[in-house]
Design goal:
210 residues, alpha/beta
C-alpha cells in the first residue's frame, strides 16, 4: 500500500474507534506499524524523490513491515526492499535509549532497519544526545530511525544511526502529493520492461473493533 493509504487508514481507525483505543488496542497493531512506516516512506520520498510502498508482514514474527520501491534505471522493473522492525517509545519508559538498547541486544539480520515511533509525549527530544549515544552501541541494524510528532500534523523523521539525516514533514502538505501515487502494487509475472499495469479498485476494510 502507498504511504497515503497507510496514513489515512490509521486516521480512519482513530476517527472510528477513538484515538486512545487506536493507540493501544492490539487489533490495530499492524495498522499502527504501517502508519509509522508510511511516515518514514514519506520522509524518504521528500529526501530523494523515490516512491515507496508499505507491505505488512502477516505470517512471520519479523520484520513488522517492509518498504518496497521499483527501480527502473536498468530498463527493467527491479524491486528494492527495506525490512523494518517497528517499536514504540511509550510514556512508561523515561528514556528512548532504553527502548533502542533493548532492541539492539536481540539478533536481527544486518539488513534490517529499526524504526522507533516516539509516542512518549514528553515534547523535546535531544537528538544530538541520542546520536552520540548510538555511536557507543553495537547495533545489529543497518539503520536506526526515529519518528516523532512535534505538533499536530507535523512530523520529524531522524536517522540516528548512522546519524546525519533529519526530515521535517507537514502531513497536510505532503499527503495531497502522496495521494497521486498508485495506492497498491502487486508483483506480476517475470519479464522485461518497465510497464506498470493498473490493477483497478481494491477494497481493504479496517479491522473490526469487536
Amino acid at each position: 500500500m502507498s504511504p497515503y493509504i497507510a496514513i489515512t487508514r490509521m486516521r480512519t481507525i482513530s476517527e472510528t474507534y477513538g484515538i486512545p483505543r487506536a493507540r493501544t488496542d492490539g487489533r490495530f497493531k499492524r495498522e499502527r506499524e504501517a502508519w509509522t512506516t508510511g511516515v518514514l516512506a514519506l520522509a524518504l520520498s521528500k529526501l530523494n524523490g523515490e516512491k515507496w510502498w508499505i507491505e505488512i508482514e502477516t505470517n512471520e514474527n519479523t520484520p513488522d513491515t517492509r518498504l518496497r520501491r521499483i527501480e527502473q534505471s536498468s530498463g527493467n522493473n527491479v524491486i528494492q526492499t527495506r525490512s523494518i522492525e517497528v517499536v514504540d517509545w511509550e510514556e512508561n519508559v523515561d528514556d528512548i535509549m532504553k527502548v533502542i538498547k533493548k532492541k539492539c541486544k536481540r539478533a536481527y539480520p544486518d539488513h534490517y532497519f529499526l524504526l522507533v515511533n516516539a509516542r512518549h509525549g514528553k515534547g523535546y527530544l535531544d537528538f544530538d544526545r541520542v546520536i552520540e549515544e548510538m555511536k557507543a552501541i553495537t547495533s545489529p541494524f543497518l539503520e536506526v530511525w526515529v519518528v516523532v510528532m512535534v505538533a499536530t500534523g507535523y512530523m520529524k523523521v531522524v536517522r540516528i544511526a548512522p546519524g546525519g539525516l533529519s526530515i521535517d514533514l507537514d502531513l497536510g502538505a505532503e499527503l495531497p502529493n502522496a495521494m497521486k501515487q498508485e495506492p497498491f502494487v502487486k508483483r506480476g509475472i517475470r519479464g522485461t520492461g518497465t510497464e506498470i499495469r493498473d490493477l483497478g479498485h481494491t477494497y481493504m476494510p479496517i479491522p473490526r473493533g469487536d
